[in-house]
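Researcher: We're teaching a course module on how sequence relates to structure. For the next exercise, students receive a sequence and then see the predicted structure as tokens, so they can try to spot secondary structure elements on their own. Here is the exercise chain.
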Amino acid sequence: MKKIPRLAVRPEHVYRLFYPSVPSILCAKWKAVSAMPVSSAVAVSDSPARIAVAVKKGLGTDLIMRRAPAFSLNWLDSQKRGLVTRLSRGKIRSKDKLGSLKISYMILMKTPVLEDSLAYVILEKEKTLDVGDHHLFIGRVIGAMASLDFDQYWKFREYRPILYLGSGNKKTFATL
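Model: And here is the predicted structure for the students to work with:
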């Protein structure tokens, strides 16, 4: 068996081993509408269905998420990669980040949901945990929809996921 050469990874860079990942768009509303791409979201329970999302402390979305009673995760097709890039660039001082970027959304169950999403999950926030330089938000699934390209699993006939490569790469987002 061939020996695999390895190098040490600094603990603060271990998260990069998870890239590429498929980002979702986190949306929340509490006196203002906020949204951002997240690569740190994971299903943590099947029954009852719960999802955890990590958001860096101090971001505008973190502030809104700490107060919002619910939030959504939205998955976009690679054709909408530009939308994800716009959401990931710089701070936008607005009561409606999505509206200011001309990103269409609707309010479902008091939560913003992107009109262009191929799938979305709406969650009622149950718990917020302080986990170092991030907050971990745990939500219970209260609604979910997906395009017809999803039948218990993605078929990938129409859906081409966006891949997040990490902010340190020359190209932050890519496609399959």
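Model: If you want an answer key for the exercise: The chain has a mean pLDDT of 94. The domain at 21-175 is CATH 2.30.110.10 (Pnp Oxidase; Chain A).
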